[in-house]
Queue: 3 jobs
Job 1
Amino acid sequence: FRKGHAPRAFIEKYYGEEVFYEAAIDHLYRPMVMEAVEKSGLQVISIGEFKIDEIGKDKGILCKLNVVTKPEATIEGYKGIEVTRPAVEVTGEDIDREIDRVRERNSRIITVEGRAAENGDIVTIDFDGYVDGKQFDGGKADKLTLGAGQFIPGFEDQVVGHSIGDEFDVNVTFPEDYHAEELKGKPAVFKIKLHEIKVKELPTVDDEFVKDVSEFDTLDEYKKDIEKRLQEQREKAADSDVENQLVEAIIEKVQAEIPDEMVENEVDEIINSFAYRLQSQGLKLETYLNYTGQTTDDLRVQYKPQAERQVKVRLGLEKIAELEGLKPTEEETEAEYQKLADSY
């Protein structure tokens, strides 16, 4: 026979009528299950074992399906929950700190000549270190910010006061908790040569500075804008803090037998969302896991507490909405769709 044109009776005679059953079930399974779930009125969160009780050309298919359903949650005492909203205030010091951050971003590094090194300077040095008269690894043309505490205690203090071209010794003792075992607690001598002194020059805060870093023309306008932005940020943070307090209170009040499948589904959602964010940054989840030495199972363990919390919050809020008869309008639903679309 040509492919696909063998008579059914011929195939059943040679292979038995059961030869078609598996293909028939594969074809019918999804619509059959979806129809049964819809008719049941159950809120199914996971489909489990599928068992065939009867099957035959004249009998049709009789099957049983085990499903995990959404639990019935209860919540009491959700009215009258008391929370504390943090006080919101923007001070002159806050505004100055914000301006200082902008100054830092717009600073420039300039070479200093004709004076000795001071705290705050960025120096370029060569150094060789010795412990018990034996040399260990040193550094060439290393950059060091004096006074920043980047190196062994006392090292930077002894560089202060020296000028470009100076060669001198620095005597220090390695800390007891130093990372190199052979150097812990040991006195050391560093032979130093100072090559260069630089300093970070910050721009003067005036109207010209404001014009360079913003759309405003005067310092007063700029400060008012900073105050407004900080106020809005802190108001949002305070609102978020109140919301978190309410959510935590709801979690404590929700009672429900939450099936493991519901938590695992939520973990899947969290990981999928995480993978999407990575992808938007040009990184695959598999690559991230290789970089961090983790597995997908490690992520599942890491995110499980978050998933449990989110499931419980959702059950609690849905129950409150049910008890209070709260339903979103079509406009509110569309606005939420738009918000989600914008975020992606």
Job 2
Amino acid sequence: PLDPARTLYVELDAGRVVIELAPAFAPRHLDNLAKLVRQRWFDGVGIVRSQDNYVVQWGDPEGTRPLGDAARTLAPEFDRPAAGLPFTRLPDGDVYAPEVGFVDGLPAARESATGRAWLAHCYGMVGVGRDVAADSGNAAELYVVTGHAPRHLDRNVTLIGRVVEGMPLLSALPRGTGPLGFYERPEQRVPIRAVRYASEVPEAQRTRLEALRTESRTFERAVEARRNRHDGWTVLQAGRVELCNVPLPVRALPR
């Protein structure tokens, strides 16, 4: 089951987007995010950008909301020491990293030469928007990958988690007509009703989900099924799989 303390609900008029957070990779940004959520900073902001085959992004479009006790800028958390992480390695190669796999259900990469590990920009991953300066992000502006995995962003942006339910609500949004997919008129923006941690929501109102543990034998079998499909439709088995083509199985629990 998802940990309510590290699960975020983004409430839209169309429904709920559920995000599983990654404290092992971005503790400072998640601490700042918690401050923003506690003071209801996100309530009433909007989705300001929907760029085709790339990302959906939300935040304060005018940049005038006071941050309260949250930091305005933070040092980037692009990577971290690989030691101590439960890394489940994929058997096939990767263009962007020496090794790829999963850490606690999140797509990740690592490099033995530097001893560093980082999260990867796969579909559904959630990142912190920033300006040119590497330390200009603070988790008040977030984006979700809605297109082909932009892995060139790895180690250039702080990633804080992944969407586990609600991606159709984001990927089907009208594309922005401005540069980089930004909405040009206020009425085009999609309002965010509220952002809450699952732990803040009464248990009866929570979205009850289970995610498959990536260190399990079941997950190994799921990966192999993606690498070599044994079905009547497949003519040629690929014999390999790339990191972002391994979706993590998530299922709803009965009430």
Job 3
Amino acid sequence: MIKVKEKSVISKRADGKECEDGLFVSDDFICVVDGVTSKGKWTWDGHTSGYYAKELVLKAMEKLPADITGEKAVEFLNQAIADGYTPERREEALHNSDEKVQANVIIYSAYRNQIWSFGDCQCIINGKIFAHEKKFDIILSNMRALYLELERICGKTEEELISHDTGREFILPILKKESLLENSESEYDIVNLNGFEINTDKLIKYYLLEGDEVVLASDGYPELKTTLKESERKLAEILDKDPLCYKDYLSTKGLKEGNASFDDRTYISFTV
């Protein structure tokens, strides 16, 4: 029996719109889904590709069989994204990979009493954190931090860089190529759902015991804590000290002018 303690989904935008994170809760599953930030130009039913991916996954979770295995679950959700492409857009995305519809998920299965991680969402199990950071993102976050530091040395203010993030622009051409590494055997492998071929060997499983305390979250929390209040407090502290996210917490993106955070964020804590 799942006992949910806290849950929250918050958009990075101050108006709360176009949130690319989502949360699904039922008697059988808990799923945090993080639609990958769009780097292309297409919109999907008037939304970003990340928002569209999130909506496709949430709808598919409603049909997920309770006794499904982790491998079959990510295949099922990946097919839901595949079905979200029109034939024309699917063909175009094959040749223009930054237009793919992509999502990361972390799922708790009550039937299996397991957590399934596919991508860079986070979890805490009995106080121990598992962040699932990508090597690709760590490298690009350092590249962006270096570029922004050089910009500061050349005289640009943090306010100017928040308004126009030249560090993000610097790494964007490489970010647009990240899908070339999706579900590959490279040490820089990118794991996510994309509606094309995925490697279920990349699925990470955690086996739980009755009474275990669990937190599932997207990567919108720089330092995930065992309570929502503490996770939010730490995020606020980082954004106050380092809104560009290039000194205290390194990221591929920082706080945009007019936004409430650098990324959408989802949090749920529960006991199994």
